[in-house]
Design goal:
Length: about 525
């Protein structure tokens, strides 16, 4: 199963050329530039701490330094990364994909070793393919890249704990507490939304003193994972950021001061249960299994079952995730709950087999077919999605080739983010903290003729206006590259002001299925001359 995930991931990424931004933009370039900070090993901190995501930044720094050293480049590391951002992003991404596949292998191998059930172990490895949101994020460079690895390792520890022998000595308990603490600290350092998963080990660990030890070690582990990239100043800012999210109604701490806005909160709960049917089905199946506690015949059986606390913990973690995500809903915030679906269904299946021995062969088949069918549907979705993406990429490549052949020496003004690496670099540098000005300067030096017309502010952005005016004064024709036809009128109005009210006309010389349009702009002599 890890091989299947690896092959799908690599095939998807193979359609992305290293020159194009191939899906890398936000937050990939922010992580790239902050990893560049750390790779210089000169005490440079990071500027992007929102998730906090520091393991991703640290891992990215190691990969940047490794490939920069192996290539034995003549330029300094800053110039090389800014000159070849997609080269480094692709290698960081591939490293994360391999780490995810390795974690998936460890999960399956551990499950087989503990349960002796090959079918169950293989189903457990479908954790990544069951909900669509999970796959969409581990093939990117983002906080989710290693966050998903952390959750896979977390589920592995649960499997070891749940299917181990029941004779837990003090040393055995301490070993599991240490494993849980390391994985949870790592997960929290990747993304704070890992927090609801802590419910599960807190429910599994028996003694209160051990629970307190687990929480203490998790906090220490979290500090260890974030401290290479975050200073005390950052920690205080991060606290203020979290407080803003908790106390304000809008996303990222925006909006009015209101912990919960009832109307949007209830609407977000509805979205959670309607946006991904596979999650909804798993959640209510697990709930139905727990409701058996209400029946006298099953009350004692469930209470004393070795997997009862695991299933209860999974359900409570899912519920807690729903309650906190409903405040500011985004499907990626539900990843921890989504990734508990398959383990939860498998645990429920094993419990039901013990409760209904007469159906012990049919129950695994039902749950197995459900998980497998949904996963196969996801694979079909992935194939369709990336086929469409490849077609869009091919359209952009053809457009670029047209420009290179027909207008290689022509001035180009761009308003398209999709393949504008310079824009992505500026975006990433904007999050790089103390190194921002240095990176801005280097980007400007390496890409001096970046003329970008922003579609939101309807004006030039990250552009040397004096250089642009100089170039326009030396030509009467240039190219305007737009994401759609709705940008041409604002651009033409702005152009008149930029060129001293000089008249101009335009014509479409190329368009594609992505709605990208290339205009040839002709500057006309002022009237009366």
């Amino acid at each position: 199963m890890p091989i299947l995930v690896l092959i799908i991931s690599l095939c998807c990424k193979s359609s992305v050329g290293e020159y194009y931004t191939g899906g890398y933009f936000d937050p990939a370039y922010a992580y790239l530039m902050n990893s560049l900070n750390l790779s210089q090993m000169s005490g440079y901190g990071v500027g992007h701490i929102d998730h906090p995501g520091t393991p991703v930044q640290i891992a990215g720094a190691v990969i940047i330094k490794l490939f920069y050293t192996l290539e034995n480049k003549n330029t300094d590391i800053v110039s090389d990364v800014i000159s070849n951002p997609e080269y480094y992003l692709t290698r960081i991404n591939l490293a994360f994909i391999f780490l995810t596949s390795l974690a998936l292998f460890i999960l399956g191998f551990s499950a087989f070793r503990k349960t002796g059930k090959l079918f169950t172990s293989c189903l457990l490895q479908l954790t990544l393919l069951y909900p669509s949101t999970v796959y969409d994020h581990f093939t990117d460079v983002s906080s989710e890249s290693l966050f998903i690895v952390a959750i896979l390792l977390f589920i592995t520890v649960i499997i070891f704990y749940s299917f181990g022998n029941n004779d837990f000595t003090r040393n055995t308990n301490l070993k599991y507490i240490l494993c849980f603490s390391l994985v949870c600290g790592f997960g929290l350092a990747c993304k704070i939304i890992f927090l609801p998963l802590l419910i599960i080990p807190l429910l599994l660990i028996k003694r209160n003193s051990f629970k307190l030890l687990f929480l203490s070690l998790t906090f220490i582990s979290f500090i260890i994972f974030v401290i290479p990239a975050i200073s005390m100043e950052h920690i205080l800012k991060y606290y203020d950021w979290l407080r803003g999210i908790a106390m304000h109604s809008g996303k990222y701490g925006t909006g009015r001061e209101d912990i919960i806005e009832t109307s949007s909160y209830l609407e977000n709960i509805r979205k959670i249960f309607t946006s991904d049917f596979s999650f909804t089905a798993a959640y209510f199946l697990i709930l139905a299994g727990l409701i058996l506690r209400l029946f006298k015949n099953f009350r004692d059986k469930i209470r004393h079952h070795r997997l009862s606390n695991v299933l209860t913990g999974i359900f409570l973690a899912m519920t807690f995730q729903i309650l906190i995500v409903a405040k500011h809903f985004d499907s990626r915030y539900m990843i921890p709950a989504y990734m508990l679906c398959v383990p939860g269904l498998i645990i429920l299946s094993l419990m039901l087999c013990d409760f209904f021995p007469a159906y012990s062969k049919k129950i695994p088949v039902f749950f197995g077919c459900t998980i497998l069918s949904i996963s196969l549907f996801r694979i079909a979705e992935i194939y369709t999605e990336y086929s469409q993406y490849s077609e869009k990429l091919a359209e952009t490549v053809n457009l670029d080739n047209f420009l290179k052949v027909k207008y290689s020496d022509c001035l180009v003004i761009n308003s398209n983010i999709a393949d504008n690496i310079v824009y992505c670099l500026y975006f990433g540098a904007d999050w790089s903290g103390a190194e921002k000005d240095k990176y801005y300067s280097e980007i400007g030096r390496l890409y001096p003729e970046n003329f970008y017309f922003d579609r939101y502010i309807r004006n030039y952005y990250l552009t040397d206006i004096h250089l642009l005016k100089s170039r326009l004064s030396k030509t009467n024709k240039f190219i305007f590259r737009s994401e759609g036809e709705n940008m041409i009128q604002p651009f033409m109005e702005n152009l008149k002001g930029l060129t001293g009210m000089q008249d101009a006309e335009y014509k479409i010389i190329y368009s594609n299925k992505n709605s990208e349009v290339i205009y040839e702009i002709t500057l006309l002599p002022a009237k009366g001359i």
